[in-house]
Design the sequence.
């Protein structure tokens, strides 16, 4: 009986070793060497597989390259000049684009989920309908960048420069824009969040002078300490938003929803609040000098004449 048990143990041990050996596949580079060669020769590689490839800074010049529809998952582009490069419809998820120069580059419909783009210059780049969930753009320059209809939920935009950027119809749910500079510097290219979804977005101590938030959903957004002077918040949903210590002077809040919002010590001087809904809003210490409250619903539910 002991011999049978011993033999059975040996058989089981051998079977385990064989199974583990067969299941182990040694790691291999996913990128195609032929595609790398084609990119070097033509500065173009459409529908290529360059995933997991590390582009050495001194070996490649990818400025104006066409990499559209390619697999660039976990590819390393760190420190490269990618200006005017075409990344449209690419898979750039988990890729490393830290400290790149990507002026006027195209990322239309690209998947940049969990991509790293911090400390980069991406002025006037196009992210139309791109997926940017959990991407990191902190400390990057994105002046006049286009994010129309893009998904930026839970993106990191801390201390970015986004003056003149377009976020029309974009999804910025739970995004972090603390200390970001979004102030509009020109009438022809105002920073635009019209119809955007900024539910639970953080914009603490951000520069938001003359930004257009009309019809935006800012439910439970946090603006604590930010500068919103001369901004357009007409018909915006600011229910339960934190606007404490915010400077809103000379802003347009006509027909805005401010139910249960916090406006503690906010500067509301010269603000147009006609027909705004301030029911149950906290106006403790708020400055309402010369503000227009005609037709507004006040915190106690009464309508201001």
Sequence:
């Amino acid at each position: 009986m002991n011999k049978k048990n011993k033999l059975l143990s040996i058989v089981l041990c051998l079977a385990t070793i064989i199974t583990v050996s067969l299941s182990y596949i040694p790691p291999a580079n996913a990128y195609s060497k032929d595609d790398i060669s084609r990119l070097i020769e033509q500065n173009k590689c459409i529908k290529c597989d360059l995933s997991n490839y590390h582009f050495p800074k001194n070996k490649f010049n990818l400025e104006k390259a066409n990499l559209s529809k390619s697999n660039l998952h976990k590819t390393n582009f760190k420190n490269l000049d990618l200006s005017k490069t075409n990344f449209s419809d690419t898979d750039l998820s988990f890729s490393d684009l830290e400290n790149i120069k990507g002026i006027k580059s195209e990322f239309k419909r690209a998947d940049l989920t969990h991509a790293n783009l911090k400390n980069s210059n991406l002025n006037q780049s196009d992210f139309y309908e791109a997926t940017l969930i959990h991407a990191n753009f902190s400390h990057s320059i994105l002046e006049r960048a286009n994010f129309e209809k893009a998904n930026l939920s839970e993106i990191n935009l801390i201390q970015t420069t986004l003056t003149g950027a377009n976020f029309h119809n974009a999804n910025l749910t739970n995004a972090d824009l603390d200390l970001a500079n979004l102030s509009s510097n020109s009438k022809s290219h105002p920073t635009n969040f019209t119809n955007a979804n900024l539910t639970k977005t953080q914009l603490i101590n951000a520069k938001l002078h003359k930004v257009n938030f009309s019809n935006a959903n800012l439910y439970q957004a946090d603006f604590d300490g930010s500068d919103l002077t001369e901004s357009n918040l007409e018909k915006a949903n600011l229910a339960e938003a934190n606007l404490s210590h915010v400077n809103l002077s000379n802003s347009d809040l006509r027909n805005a929803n401010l139910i249960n919002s916090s406006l503690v010590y906010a500067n509301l001087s010269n603000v147009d609040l006609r027909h705004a809904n301030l029911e149950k809003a906290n106006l403790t210490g708020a400055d309402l000098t010369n503000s227009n409250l005609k037709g507004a619903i006040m915190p106690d539910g009464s309508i201001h004449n």
Remarks:
- DSSP finds two helices and no strands in the chain.
